[in-house]
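Predict the 3D structure for this chain.
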Amino acid sequence: MISREQLLGIARDVFLELGIRATTAEVAKRAGVAEGTLFHRFPSKEELFREAMRFDPEDVLAFIEALPKRAGKGELRATLIEFCEGFVDFARVALPVMMMSWSNPESELCSDRGGERGRRQRRVIGAVSSFFQAEMDGGRMRSTAPPEVFARMLLGSIHQFCMGEMFAGTQPGRLRASEFVRGVVDVLLAAAGAEPRPATVRSKRRKEERS
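Done. Predicted structure below.
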Protein backbone atom coordinates (compact mmCIF):
# COMPACT_ATOMS: atom_id res chain seq x y z
CA MET A 1 0.00 0.00 0.00
CA ILE A 2 1.12 3.55 -0.70
CA SER A 3 -0.02 6.42 1.47
CA ARG A 4 -1.99 9.35 0.14
CA GLU A 5 0.90 11.74 0.87
CA GLN A 6 3.40 9.49 -0.93
CA LEU A 7 1.09 9.29 -3.92
CA LEU A 8 0.64 13.06 -4.00
CA GLY A 9 4.40 13.57 -3.75
CA ILE A 10 5.01 11.33 -6.76
CA ALA A 11 2.19 13.00 -8.69
CA ARG A 12 3.64 16.41 -7.93
CA ASP A 13 7.04 15.36 -9.29
CA VAL A 14 5.42 14.06 -12.47
CA PHE A 15 3.31 17.18 -12.99
CA LEU A 16 6.26 19.50 -12.38
CA GLU A 17 8.34 17.51 -14.88
CA LEU A 18 5.71 17.03 -17.59
CA GLY A 19 3.15 19.75 -16.86
CA ILE A 20 -0.19 19.40 -18.62
CA ARG A 21 1.21 16.56 -20.73
CA ALA A 22 1.40 14.27 -17.69
CA THR A 23 -1.04 11.38 -17.61
CA THR A 24 -2.54 9.45 -14.74
CA ALA A 25 -0.96 6.36 -16.31
CA GLU A 26 2.51 7.89 -15.85
CA VAL A 27 1.75 8.81 -12.24
CA ALA A 28 0.49 5.29 -11.52
CA LYS A 29 3.54 3.73 -13.20
CA ARG A 30 6.00 5.74 -11.08
CA ALA A 31 4.00 5.06 -7.94
CA GLY A 32 3.92 1.32 -8.69
CA VAL A 33 0.13 1.10 -8.50
CA ALA A 34 -2.71 0.41 -10.91
CA GLU A 35 -4.23 3.46 -12.60
CA GLY A 36 -7.55 2.46 -11.09
CA THR A 37 -6.04 3.03 -7.63
CA LEU A 38 -5.59 6.70 -8.49
CA PHE A 39 -9.20 7.10 -9.54
CA HIS A 40 -10.33 5.26 -6.43
CA ARG A 41 -8.65 7.95 -4.32
CA PHE A 42 -9.04 10.92 -6.68
CA PRO A 43 -12.17 11.23 -8.86
CA SER A 44 -10.34 12.82 -11.79
CA LYS A 45 -6.94 13.85 -13.11
CA GLU A 46 -7.91 17.46 -12.34
CA GLU A 47 -8.54 16.63 -8.67
CA LEU A 48 -5.22 14.77 -8.42
CA PHE A 49 -3.44 17.66 -10.11
CA ARG A 50 -4.92 20.27 -7.80
CA GLU A 51 -4.13 18.40 -4.60
CA ALA A 52 -0.64 17.40 -5.71
CA MET A 53 0.37 20.90 -6.74
CA ARG A 54 -1.00 22.54 -3.57
CA PHE A 55 -1.18 25.86 -5.39
CA ASP A 56 -2.72 28.82 -3.57
CA PRO A 57 -2.79 32.11 -5.52
CA GLU A 58 -2.85 34.03 -2.24
CA ASP A 59 0.61 32.70 -1.37
CA VAL A 60 1.94 34.06 -4.65
CA LEU A 61 0.33 37.45 -4.02
CA ALA A 62 1.76 37.65 -0.51
CA PHE A 63 5.25 36.92 -1.87
CA ILE A 64 4.99 39.52 -4.66
CA GLU A 65 3.35 42.22 -2.58
CA ALA A 66 6.21 42.02 -0.07
CA LEU A 67 8.64 43.24 -2.75
CA PRO A 68 7.92 47.02 -2.47
CA LYS A 69 8.92 46.93 1.20
CA ARG A 70 12.43 45.88 0.11
CA ALA A 71 12.98 48.92 -2.10
CA GLY A 72 16.08 50.88 -1.17
CA LYS A 73 17.40 48.12 1.09
CA GLY A 74 20.47 46.04 0.33
CA GLU A 75 21.95 45.61 -3.12
CA LEU A 76 19.35 46.16 -5.83
CA ARG A 77 20.64 43.38 -8.06
CA ALA A 78 20.69 40.84 -5.24
CA THR A 79 17.15 41.75 -4.22
CA LEU A 80 15.85 41.30 -7.76
CA ILE A 81 17.66 38.01 -8.28
CA GLU A 82 16.23 36.60 -5.05
CA PHE A 83 12.75 37.80 -6.00
CA CYS A 84 12.97 36.37 -9.51
CA GLU A 85 14.20 32.98 -8.33
CA GLY A 86 11.25 32.78 -5.95
CA PHE A 87 8.89 33.87 -8.71
CA VAL A 88 10.24 31.14 -11.01
CA ASP A 89 9.45 28.55 -8.34
CA PHE A 90 5.87 29.80 -8.11
CA ALA A 91 5.47 30.09 -11.89
CA ARG A 92 6.58 26.50 -12.44
CA VAL A 93 3.57 25.42 -10.41
CA ALA A 94 1.12 28.17 -11.36
CA LEU A 95 1.41 27.83 -15.14
CA PRO A 96 0.47 24.12 -15.30
CA VAL A 97 -2.41 24.84 -12.90
CA MET A 98 -3.66 27.68 -15.10
CA MET A 99 -3.31 25.61 -18.27
CA MET A 100 -5.26 22.80 -16.66
CA SER A 101 -8.01 25.17 -15.57
CA TRP A 102 -8.26 26.87 -18.96
CA SER A 103 -8.61 23.51 -20.67
CA ASN A 104 -11.54 22.69 -18.37
CA PRO A 105 -13.71 25.85 -18.37
CA GLU A 106 -16.46 24.21 -16.32
CA SER A 107 -14.15 23.15 -13.53
CA GLU A 108 -13.88 24.62 -10.06
CA LEU A 109 -10.31 25.66 -10.83
CA CYS A 110 -11.60 27.93 -13.57
CA SER A 111 -14.49 29.46 -11.62
CA ASP A 112 -12.72 32.80 -11.12
CA ARG A 113 -11.33 33.03 -14.64
CA GLY A 114 -12.88 36.45 -15.21
CA GLY A 115 -12.98 38.96 -12.39
CA GLU A 116 -10.84 37.57 -9.60
CA ARG A 117 -7.98 36.48 -11.81
CA GLY A 118 -7.92 39.90 -13.44
CA ARG A 119 -7.78 41.61 -10.06
CA ARG A 120 -4.87 39.40 -9.00
CA GLN A 121 -2.99 40.26 -12.17
CA ARG A 122 -3.44 43.98 -11.53
CA ARG A 123 -2.16 43.56 -7.98
CA VAL A 124 0.92 41.71 -9.24
CA ILE A 125 1.78 44.38 -11.80
CA GLY A 126 1.01 47.11 -9.27
CA ALA A 127 3.30 45.68 -6.60
CA VAL A 128 6.30 45.18 -8.90
CA SER A 129 5.72 48.59 -10.49
CA SER A 130 5.68 50.16 -7.01
CA PHE A 131 9.04 48.58 -6.26
CA PHE A 132 10.60 50.04 -9.38
CA GLN A 133 8.99 53.42 -8.75
CA ALA A 134 10.49 53.50 -5.27
CA GLU A 135 13.92 52.62 -6.64
CA MET A 136 13.60 55.40 -9.22
CA ASP A 137 12.51 57.88 -6.56
CA GLY A 138 15.52 56.85 -4.48
CA GLY A 139 17.90 57.41 -7.39
CA ARG A 140 19.10 53.83 -7.76
CA MET A 141 17.36 53.54 -11.14
CA ARG A 142 17.72 56.58 -13.39
CA SER A 143 15.49 55.64 -16.31
CA THR A 144 12.56 57.91 -17.19
CA ALA A 145 10.50 55.00 -18.54
CA PRO A 146 7.30 54.19 -16.65
CA PRO A 147 7.98 51.66 -13.85
CA GLU A 148 5.25 49.42 -15.24
CA VAL A 149 7.44 48.86 -18.31
CA PHE A 150 10.14 47.30 -16.15
CA ALA A 151 7.58 45.31 -14.16
CA ARG A 152 6.12 43.77 -17.31
CA MET A 153 9.57 43.17 -18.81
CA LEU A 154 10.66 41.25 -15.73
CA LEU A 155 7.48 39.24 -15.13
CA GLY A 156 6.90 38.59 -18.82
CA SER A 157 10.42 37.27 -19.29
CA ILE A 158 10.04 34.83 -16.41
CA HIS A 159 6.62 33.76 -17.66
CA GLN A 160 8.05 33.01 -21.13
CA PHE A 161 11.00 31.09 -19.68
CA CYS A 162 8.74 28.87 -17.57
CA MET A 163 6.36 28.32 -20.50
CA GLY A 164 9.36 27.12 -22.51
CA GLU A 165 10.29 24.70 -19.74
CA MET A 166 6.72 23.43 -19.55
CA PHE A 167 6.37 22.68 -23.26
CA ALA A 168 9.94 21.91 -24.31
CA GLY A 169 11.39 20.64 -21.06
CA THR A 170 15.02 21.07 -20.06
CA GLN A 171 17.35 20.29 -22.95
CA PRO A 172 21.17 20.26 -23.31
CA GLY A 173 22.45 23.73 -23.98
CA ARG A 174 19.41 25.50 -22.57
CA LEU A 175 19.94 28.13 -19.90
CA ARG A 176 19.37 27.03 -16.35
CA ALA A 177 16.87 29.10 -14.40
CA SER A 178 19.60 30.66 -12.26
CA GLU A 179 21.55 31.75 -15.35
CA PHE A 180 18.44 33.12 -16.99
CA VAL A 181 17.40 35.10 -13.92
CA ARG A 182 20.80 36.75 -13.54
CA GLY A 183 20.94 37.60 -17.21
CA VAL A 184 17.48 39.16 -17.24
CA VAL A 185 18.16 41.19 -14.10
CA ASP A 186 21.47 42.48 -15.49
CA VAL A 187 19.88 43.50 -18.81
CA LEU A 188 17.00 45.21 -17.07
CA LEU A 189 19.22 47.14 -14.67
CA ALA A 190 21.50 48.23 -17.50
CA ALA A 191 18.49 49.50 -19.43
CA ALA A 192 17.25 51.28 -16.30
CA GLY A 193 20.53 53.10 -15.76
CA ALA A 194 20.92 51.44 -12.39
CA GLU A 195 23.94 51.87 -10.17
CA PRO A 196 26.69 49.36 -11.05
CA ARG A 197 26.95 46.47 -8.64
CA PRO A 198 29.83 46.60 -6.16
CA ALA A 199 31.93 43.99 -7.99
CA THR A 200 31.82 46.07 -11.16
CA VAL A 201 32.85 49.18 -9.27
CA ARG A 202 35.80 47.39 -7.67
CA SER A 203 36.91 45.99 -11.02
CA LYS A 204 36.80 49.44 -12.59
CA ARG A 205 38.88 50.87 -9.74
CA ARG A 206 41.50 48.14 -10.16
CA LYS A 207 41.83 48.94 -13.86
CA GLU A 208 42.24 52.64 -13.08
CA GLU A 209 44.92 51.87 -10.47
CA ARG A 210 46.86 49.68 -12.92
CA SER A 211 46.83 52.44 -15.55
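The chain has ten helices and no strands.
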